[in-house]
């Protein structure tokens, strides 16, 4: 039977407080990696003749890779549940990206696009988390 007592610490409930900070820090690193990649991509677009049709898939690829790296970082720094911690890092990444996008852009964000990004981020972060736990165990 599950124990539903009050007053349990964060560690007793599942994710230790240290791991929460590691997950947040990993998501921040994912955002930094994305921003650097977007700057490099912007320079490439301005200096060469890149078709506009390549922009959306490239942006999506950068986001997926950045989230997977964030998930990997979150799971390597912790001991267990890499898929969950990576997925949470991905969701925090999307939340931070949403905040940054809403500050920079005046265009409204579609709810369906936000849900799609959240699902993609959880899956990519979970995959990165699984890879991180596997690499750490070797």
Automatic annotation (TrEMBL):
Protein name in UniProt: TIGR04086 family membrane protein
Organism encoding this protein: Mahella australiensis (strain DSM 15567 / CIP 107919 / 50-1 BON)
KW Membrane (keyword) present: yes
Key words, A-Z: Membrane, Transmembrane, Transmembrane helix
Transmembrane regions: 20-45, 57-76, 88-106, 118-135
Pfam families in UniProt: DUF3792
InterPro entries per the UniProt record, alphabetical: DUF3792_TM
Membrane keyword on record: yes
């Amino acid at each position: 039977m599950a124990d539903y007592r009050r007053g349990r610490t964060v560690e007793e409930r599942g994710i230790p407080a240290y791991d929460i900070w590691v997950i947040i820090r990993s998501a921040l690193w994912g955002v930094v990696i994305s921003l650097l990649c977007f700057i490099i991509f912007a320079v490439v677009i301005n200096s060469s003749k890149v078709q506009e049709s390549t922009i959306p898939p490239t942006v999506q690829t950068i986001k997926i890779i950045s989230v997977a790296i964030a998930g990997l970082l979150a799971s390597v720094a912790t001991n267990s549940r890499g898929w969950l911690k990576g997925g949470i890092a991905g969701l925090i990444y999307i939340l931070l990206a949403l905040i940054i996008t809403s500050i920079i852009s005046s265009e409204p964000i579609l709810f369906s696009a936000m849900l799609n990004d959240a699902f993609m981020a959880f899956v990519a972060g979970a995959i990165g988390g699984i890879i991180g736990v596997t690499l750490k165990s070797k």
